[in-house]
Design a protein that fits this description.
Protein name: Rap1a/Tai family immunity protein
InterPro entries: Rap1a
Shape: elongated
Number of domains: 1
Keywords: Signal
Low-confidence stretches: 5-25, 136-141
Distance between the termini: 112 Å
Order of helices and strands: HHHHH
Strand content: under 5%
Structural class: mainly alpha
Number of helices: 5
Pfam family, one: Rap1a
Length: 150
Amino acid sequence: MRTRIAAALLACGPLALAPAMAQTPAATPAVTHVQTVADLAAVCDPGWSGVPKLEAIAYCQGFLTSAGQYHTLLHPAGGTRKPLYCVPNPAPTVAEAGLAFAAWSRANPNYNAEPALDGLLRFAQSKYPCPADAAAPARRTTRPAPNAAR
């Protein structure tokens, strides 16, 4: 009988430690909010490992993708507004752009307290400037100019 109890205690010993191990605080918090350039740079090139690193990279890539899509909607090809930046062809991958943004942030720490989107646009304008011929097309008019001959 004592042998069975001892064997049961040995078998259950690791399970007794499980609640204590589960209550250990996480070393890296999950990314739930990015506010500044420094915050975005930290998730685009995280120093963490495992699942938190993957979550951070996914957050970064989602942020960059949505900002890029919004810019494209505001500045469509052939539109009346000059784009803020012009991505080359072939375009970098979202992962490459995220790492480049993080490197830009490290090289330009004076912008790290700015809103994340402002810094991302600063980066994109410096990394992907538009050629001089990408100026906005002539403004279209729908009415004749005032005092025009009728």
